[in-house]
Amino acid sequence: MYHYNTTMSLVTISGLEPAIATGDLETVKHLYTTADEDQKSALLTSIATRAAGKAKTEILDWCFRSGLQVPRTSLNNELYDQACLSLSLAVFGVLVAHGVNLNRYHSEYIGDALSLAAYHGDIELARFLLQNGVDPNQAWGYQDYEPGVAAVAGPNPSSEILRLMLQHGWTQKDSTAHIAAAELGNLEVLRLLVEADYGADLEHAGAWWPIPSEGIVGEVGTALYRAALTGKEEVVAYLLEKGATPKFKDKKGQSCFWAAKQGGNEKVMRMLEDSD
Fold first, then answer.
1. Other CB atoms closer than 10 Å to residue 256's CB: what's the count?
2. pLDDT per residue over 163-214, tens digit each?
3. How many Å apart are CA 21 and CA 38, to the nearest integer?
4. Is residue 7 pLDDT above 70, yes or no?
5. d(CA 208, CA 178)
6. Degrees (nearest 5) of the Cα angle 183, 186, 190?
7. For position 196, what pLDDT does the model report?
8. Residue 34 DSSP symbol
9. What is the C-alpha separation between 165 and 98, in angstroms, rounded?
């Protein structure tokens, strides 16, 4: 769960929390200017954090113009976390306009902005982040979900976000996004990842899931192995065509053919036998 740890709680100032919630900048200004001088720095940070979370960009912009200094703490910065949770392009627009380096921040509770945008299939936010310097090779989300996997396995899969990442220098190094696409049977995305300038490594074996799907043997394997395990005929045929080796064995010595037997798809078993 996400926890707050602000220096000064807004509830100590009557009317400030609802003023932020409703976007009442004039009230926010008045309550800020009448606060004790020794409280103003912490108060401004607290106002900005709440304003970011509620996507009140006019208030957030005023905080910066009033001298807000974003803490340089790279891990679990509250302002960045709330901006991420807002999923608001306008909020990130304010941060970028005031010189905040989005590559500097990350949260162990929610990951980062690009991974969240990818997970939710928010193409416009992902485009904005990438166009404003977010490095797709440095991004990683909650429970180590990289943005590539998030774009494949999230509730709103998006090949367009993957395209944007590739256009902005994503190398897919050590990525398991193509394994996720293979296991889930998303041939469109798999083709995109394999045939990109920085093509996916078909012999890379890694887990894309924090916890394996129910009923699926949790052995780490290549894209071909996982596609065979889940009986994805078209995917297996495509991967074999692209040169994926059926000779891979997992850490227990179990082969792609073994995985196909577990998946119970006889056509996949025959394809693997014929490819030897």
1. 30
2. 999 999 999 999 999 999 999 999 999 999 999 999 999 999 999 987 666 5
3. 25
4. no
5. 9
6. 90
7. 95
8. T
9. 24
Q: Is 4 helix (H, G, I), strand (E, B) or coil?
A: coil
Specify burial of residue 72 (Cβ count, 10 A radius: 0-12, 13-18, 19+).
Answer: exposed
Please give the helix or strand (H or E) that residue 32 lies within, else none. helix 25-33
* Cβ atoms within 10 Å of 18's Cβ, excluding its own: 11
Residue 257 is encoded by which pair of tokens?
A: 């053919």
Residue 66: name the closest of 32, 97, 99 by CA: 32
CA distance linking residue 7 with residue 24, whole number of Å: 23
Per-residue tokens: 137? 């090779």
| β-bridge partners, 255 | 249
User: Structure pTM?
Assistant: 0.90
Question: What single-letter amino acid sits at 14?
Answer: S
Residue-wise pLDDT for 163-177, tens only, equals 999 999 999 999 999
Q: Do the Cβ atoms of 168 and 130 come closer than 8 Å? A: yes
| Closest residue by Cα to residue 51 from 85, 75, 76, 74 | 85
Integer Cα distance of 208 and 160 in angstroms: 20
